[in-house]
Design brief:
Dna Topoisomerase Vi A Subunit, Chain: A, domain 2; 2 domains; four-stranded parallel sheet; 13% strand
């Protein structure tokens, strides 16, 4: 049976987030969708290098209505070669050339996935069972330590690791990302341009 959506992500953390997010159709303001999410074995650089070709070879067009490719700008190898929007346009053109015109989207997260999470620190605090003010205090501590003014958007992954590994003494796994994404405020996450584009496209493709 034909599914609504196939998503190719750059790693297991992004896969976990997308599976959790797509399961929250009411919060997204879309109808329930059938989907499959897979990760590229070569991470972000693999997505940029041959993600569309991988789709063409392994994802039959007759099996899915839409396809979505998501990757991090940081670590993709594009940082010195082109701007984020230029990177996304390159992938969109490849998707069109691969006969996915009008049925696909390419979303680059700047700088990386954890940027989404920091738009709703309450969900991170909830997962850690800590007061949100304590999380914010740790953010300030990290900022002073690293001299990064806005670590939530400049170094979101490093900040996430600092708080989980050094302060909360918690391990990080795809399950952590999944649990946070299941409870995160969708409207808050829409403060991220990448996530906002994702939601707009999903609402366009799968209206309630």
């Amino acid at each position: 049976m034909k599914k609504d959506l196939f998503v190719l992500t750059a790693d297991s953390d992004a896969k976990a987030v997308m599976e959790a997010v797509l399961s929250r159709h009411q919060s997204l303001g879309i109808r329930p969708v059938t989907f499959k999410v897979e990760r590229h074995t070569l991470c972000d650089s693999g997505i940029v290098k041959n993600g569309v070709e991988l789709l063409r070879l392994t994802v039959p067009k007759q099996d899915y209505e839409k396809v979505l490719i998501i990757w991090d700008y940081h670590g993709s190898g594009c940082e010195k070669r082109c701007k984020p929007n230029e990177s996304a346009e390159e992938i969109r053109k490849k998707l069109t050339d691969a006969t996915w015109r009008d049925n696909s989207e390419a979303i680059v997260i700047v700088p990386e996935l954890e940027e989404w999470l920091w738009f709703n620190p309450e969900s991170i605090a909830g997962f850690l069972n800590r007061p949100v003010q304590e999380i914010k205090a740790w953010v300030q501590e990290y900022s002073k330590k690293t001299k990064v003014k806005v670590p939530e958007s400049e170094t979101p992954k490093e900040l996430f690791e600092f708080i989980f590994l050094e302060r909360a003494k918690k391990t990080i796994s795809p399950r952590v990302y999944s649990e946070i994404a299941k409870k995160a405020g969708i409207r808050s996450w829409e403060g991220s341009s990448g996530f906002s584009l994702l939601v707009r496209r999903l609402r366009e493709w799968f209206p309630e």
